Amino acid sequence: MDTDLPRGAAGYLVAVPVAALCCLLPLLPLPAPLAGPHWLGDPVDWPKVGLLAFLHGCWESLAQGLPSPCLRLVRLLLRRPRPHGRPPARPDVNAFFPVLFAGVLMLPPAAAALVAAPAALLGAAEPTCRRRQVWNGSQLALSAFAASVVFHRLAGPQLLLGSRFPAALLPGCAALAAFCLVNGVLVGAMRLLADGPRRPSAHRPPAHRPSAHRPPAHRRAAAVPGLPVLVHAAGGLMVAVLWQGPYGAFAALLALLPLSISAWVFAQGHRERDAHQATVQALVQAVEIKDAYTRGHSERVGRASVLIAGQLGMEAERLRTLRYAGVLHDVGKLGVATELLRRNGPLTEAERRAVEVHPVHGYELVRGIAFLGEAHAGILHHHERMDGRGYPSGLAGEQIPEFARIISVADAFDSMTSTRSYRRGRPVTEAVAELERCSGSQFDPVMVRALVDALAVHDWQPVLPPPDTIGAVPDIPLGVPEPVRAAPRGVPAQGGGSVPTAGPS
């Protein structure tokens, strides 16, 4: 939900909060013709609504690893700033729903929608996240409203109040399905409007793109309710049953304790992943400062590696580690002389060997970072070749780790489609043809095919030079000898060699 949203998405960003406000109208004293069914908004137990909204806000803060509303209120009254080093708000992570589901089961629909609002609207968001925060709260309010309507229409409150089980489970399951459906539709529509229709890649004809009609895996999975939602729904049902029992809200709070532990663990996992990302980003920035060519190259190699692995069906945890490996594959350039990395002319044999040792430097730099796991081998061996003529270990075929075989293809592809000082980036079609030509000798054919299939679904644009320098960069097709380039003093001028596909980049 950035500031440069398309017009349709910007309008949708306003329409959803307006619709959420309309859901709250039954709480107002409206004339009889406009009031609608009485069960939509009254009678309302306002202390229960306030307590549920407060508890929902507290547990949402806990799940997001943020200060609770009470702590933020105390700091506001004492005029104390937020402590330095505190992670920013995560308005896209609304991970704790038991209290919200309890409101769906115990309150009229309009009041159930109101429970979701304070947690989103009063959260500790950065100013740039405020619109996203409002939208998240609004779509949760609409989802809660729809779920509560379904629950009431199926006589859920009467069955729940009388503890008529398992009959009360049917309206509860229907309410959960309505919540997930409305939430999925609202989020899916925003993604569709924000991203726009995906343009098919033009590097292959339609006959070679049998899977082009299929959405990416993460979009297909987003429509399926996950296990945490089902667990939270069961927790919400337990809270509602205990709350309406002889011990009231106190027993309901005790029921939340086990789920609170899971929410805290979830938040710690997010913090750990954020710390991992910060570590990786710091290393990448250090390399980009030293070698201007890698600016953006590392991220693109990480993205291309994930595209390849996605076609192979790699599991999510390994995908995350592979992306780290792709982003950090050139971190060993920190151990290579800056003059060698920035030179436009040819290198002597000794200088080339000094550059080719960068995978070893990279491995030495990151081998103590435990969370990288398989990424260590990917960084060390990403310049190996299938025919055994690569470096640093001369591995061949299946001896080369899977991560390294993936990164090798992704690295070469981005190198060929990126503009350097001595050659413009080549079109995707030309880069793909070169990968296929070297398939089996330099690259793993399975990884090359996976990249080709991924490019049929995901658009990839070559990195073009700035408009004011495009005339100074030679437009040399792959495989055509490069022109003779000026050599540094004391080194013979060289030229006429073939353009490398996956040299030390």
Describe this structure in words.
- This protein has helices at 7-23, 32-35, 46-64, 69-78, 98-106, 109-121, 130-153, 156-161, 169-195, 217-222, 227-243, 248-290, 297-312, 316-327, 338-342, 349-356, 358-366, 375-380, 402-417, 428-437, 445-455.
- The longest helix has 43 residues, at 248-290.
- Helices cover 57% and strands 0% of the residues.
- The chain is an all-alpha fold and 505 residues long.
- The protein contains 21 helices and no strands.
Instruction: Report the strand count.
Output: 0
Q: Order of helices and strands, N to C?
A: HHHHHHHHHHHHHHHHHHHHH
Shape verdict: elongated
Distance between the termini: 35 Å
Helix count, per DSSP? Answer: 21
Give the biggest sheet: none
Residue share in β-strands: under 5%
Portion in helices? 55-70%
Q: What do the pLDDT scores average to?
A: 75
Question: Summary?
Answer:
By secondary structure, the chain is mostly helical.
Structure characteristics:
single chain; mainly alpha; disordered C terminus; 505 residues
Walk me through the topology.
Blueprint: H1 7-23, H2 32-35, H3 46-64, H4 69-78, H5 98-106, H6 109-121, H7 130-153, H8 156-161, H9 169-195, H10 217-222, H11 227-243, H12 248-290, H13 297-312, H14 316-327, H15 338-342, H16 349-356, H17 358-366, H18 375-380, H19 402-417, H20 428-437, H21 445-455
